[in-house]
Amino acid sequence: MGEVRKLDLEFAAQIQQRIDLKTKPLGALGDLEVLAKQLVLIFSQGLSLAQFECARFTITQPQLVVFAGDHGIAAHGVSIAPSEVTGQMVANFANGGAAINVFCRQFDWQLSVVDCGILTTPEPELGVISQRLGTSTSCFTTSAAMSHQQLEQGLAYGKQLVENKLNRNSNLLAFGEMGIGNTSSAAAIFSALSGLAPEQTVGRGTGVDDDVQAKKLRLITQALQFHGEHLSTARDVLRCLGGFEICQMVGAMLAGARLQKAILVDGFIATVAAMLAIEMEPNCRDYMIFAHNSGEQGHSKMLAYLQAKPLLNLELRLGEGTGAALCLPILQSALAFYNDMASFSQAQVNDVVSV
């Protein structure tokens, strides 16, 4: 994939000083200040000191990609919806009728939809990007979810999408997903990576009842026992337990970090993709901003595992990238105050930082 460079902190002190000297008490804008510093650090990579000092940092042509894939585990009835709904929702995305379409239109995200491998191939006129690895993963309770070839092709597809198909002027990437059964896959991956028992990672997904949740728990426990010693690396975990959409999302995150883009991580499924990307390339973490804490019970544990503080907590559990899409105005506000808020000296206000 190519090595992901660690963020160069050359301008970190200047950025922090500029934030601290704005006309406000020290730290008064809270997490917005932390966010502004991270964004400016990312966006200033490769600049000379002269370029940095006169730069105005803004988000340009933000890209949101929804990856869709079907899962073999869904045949066991681990969701309130059958697998056919994946394809139906992909058509809904393409036709502009889903929540993610509404939010992308509202905030001027550039939205792309990718068929990573679903049961029903979308009609060509829908404009869905075809990166199919098959029609569905295998059921991970009795076999690996995908082959070595599918794994490597999926990572390559995600990389190529970011490098070749998305606008190279974009400096912010976000990734959503659609796939009936993918909360089961994400919970299994999280348990495999963290060592947490499935009882701590398995949630209700689309809103299943107690019986279905108990079935999910049993199947994921079975899968972890079945694969056992074969889960020694992040690639192994992804191949044995992952989804086609999760695989391509990992490849896209790795590519985005390698290109030093800011990566806005959505909910439960996207965060497990982020975990895998970080396991493969630890420096990816520097480029990631975590959008929200979802209503899925394992997500807060994922965020704690990554020592990540999300921007929002709205009890969202829809996926699609909806939480990430909603965060764009917050990122823009962080940069707006950094760029435009007066310093104490500029405003001729007594400096409350140093008094």
Name a few traits of the molecule:
2 domains; 16 helices; 6 strands; Nict_dMeBzImd_PRibTrfase_sf; 355 residues; Nicotinate-nucleotide--dimethylbenzimidazole phosphoribosyltransferase; EC 2.4.2.21; cobalamin biosynthesis
Radius of gyration, in angstroms, nearest whole number: 21 Å
Report the helical percentage: 40-55%
Instruction: Pick out the low-confidence regions.
Output: none
Strand order of the largest sheet: 3-2-1-4-5-6
Strand % is: 5-15%
GO molecular function: nicotinate-nucleotide-dimethylbenzimidazole phosphoribosyltransferase activity
Family: Belongs to the CobT family.
EC number: 2.4.2.21
Keywords: Cobalamin biosynthesis, Glycosyltransferase, Transferase
Q: What is this structure's SSE topology?
A:
Elements: H1 12-20, H2 31-43, H3 49-54, E1 63-69, H4 84-95, H5 99-107, E2 110-117, E3 129-130, H6 148-165, E4 172-178, H7 182-194, H8 198-201, H9 210-227, H10 234-241, H11 244-258, E5 262-265, H12 268-280, E6 288-290, H13 299-305, H14 322-326, H15 328-340, H16 344-347
Parallel strand pairs: 1-2, 1-4, 2-3, 4-5, 5-6
Mind explaining what this structure looks like?
The protein is α/β, with parallel strands linked by helices and 355 residues long. The protein folds into two domains: 12-58 and 334-347, Orthogonal Bundle (5,6-Dimethylbenzimidazole Phosphoribosyltransferase, Chain: A, domain 1), CATH 1.10.1610.10; 63-330, 3-Layer(aba) Sandwich (Rossmann fold), CATH 3.40.50. The protein contains 16 helices and six strands. It has helices at residues 12-20, 31-43, 49-54, 84-95, 99-107, 148-165, 182-194, 198-201, 210-227, 234-241, 244-258, 268-280, 299-305, 322-326, 328-340, 344-347, and strands at residues 63-69, 110-117, 129-130, 172-178, 262-265, 288-290. The protein has a six-stranded parallel β-sheet with strand order 3-2-1-4-5-6, with helices on both faces. β5, α12 (268-280) and β6 (288-290) form a beta-alpha-beta unit. It is globular and about 70 Å long. The mean pLDDT is 94. It catalyses: 5,6-dimethylbenzimidazole + nicotinate beta-D-ribonucleotide = alpha-ribazole 5'-phosphate + nicotinate + H(+). One of its GO terms (molecular function) is nicotinate-nucleotide-dimethylbenzimidazole phosphoribosyltransferase activity.
